[in-house]
Design goal:
- This protein is of the alpha+beta class.
- It contains 1 helix and 3 strands.
- It has a 3-stranded antiparallel sheet with strand order 1-2-3.
- The longest helix has 13 residues.
Length: 65
């Protein structure tokens, strides 16, 4: 996956997040964006096939400290 600069949309920004998996073996990583008060904004599911690309971006950008 090539590095891509993201133009941040004019939308609500998350204060924090939770990450985990569910009981579905075909599912991927679940990330739940949260507001400062802990209420959920949205859920992002990164499929198993996309995890490698995400990890590559993390590595390429030096975020895997």
């Amino acid at each position: 996956m090539a590095r891509e600069t993201i133009n941040r949309p004019d939308c609500e920004k998350a204060f924090s997040f939770e990450a985990g998996t569910c009981d579905d073996p075909g599912c991927g990583l679940h990330i739940i964006a949260e507001r400062r008060d802990g209420t959920a904004i949205c859920e992002i599911i990164i499929g198993r096939k996309s995890i490698h690309g995400l990890l590559q971006i993390i590595h390429d950008e030096g975020l895997d400290l």
